[in-house]
Design a protein that fits this description.
This is Acid phosphatase 1. It holds the Pfam family Acid_phosphat_B. Keywords: Glycoprotein, Signal. This protein is 45% helix and 12% strand. The protein starts with a helix and ends in a 9-residue tail after the last strand. It is of the alpha/beta class. Strands 3-2-1-4-5 form a five-stranded parallel beta sheet, sandwiched between helices.
Amino acid sequence: IHKRVMLLLIFLTISVVATSASPWIPMDGNNPASYCLSWRLAIETNNVRAWRTVPLQCMRYVEAYMLAGQYDRDVELIGEQVRVYLNEIVLPGDGMDAWILDVDDTCLSNVYYYRLKRYGCDPYDPTGFRTWAMKGESPAIQPVLELFNDLIEIGFKVFLVTGRDEETLRQATVENLHNQGFTGYERLIMRTAENKKQSAATYKTTIRKQLMEENYRIWGNVGDQWSDIQGEYSGNRTFKIPNPMYFVP
């Protein structure tokens, strides 16, 4: 099965005509699959930052990565590593043990929306994404849902911290999470007018600081963006979910 997946990746990638080269990674015109693999590695390790769109020649590569099984296996492996860490923790049992999860493309997948945006080859469309989010049709990322349930069973207070707008998207987000099995979390924290203009990194750092000022201990923090897990008060351990479709500063 691994050979079939690799052949699919190579076939889909070679089928895309390379129309533009990235300004920051040389394009190997003879091996686009190798280039796209290197590009994904660079963004996931945060060596390439503030990128706006997926290179057009990598659209089919990203599609295959997200849908042909490798993304699912990568997320499952991250979940396994989280559980290794969880086995090392002894909770005091005072109810102040916190765990933070991002929402978009951490708990809920937006891959079907981004399929319409050529898997990130098109620029970010805030109006289009808001329309999608209001439908409440984002499916759960199953390994994260399983981890979420494990965290609650162990005794963590799980905080869902998202950059979604409080005023326009709270009801749709609550219903979407509930319908996909995310129930029993401590708090869903969304952007308000007060932090609307902050970068994601600043906003999420501010939220984590507030939680620690409430005397919560942040044992873990999981997100698909580096801005979810970097900065102060990030928690005892952070875990990065892969996302080759977009970058949020």
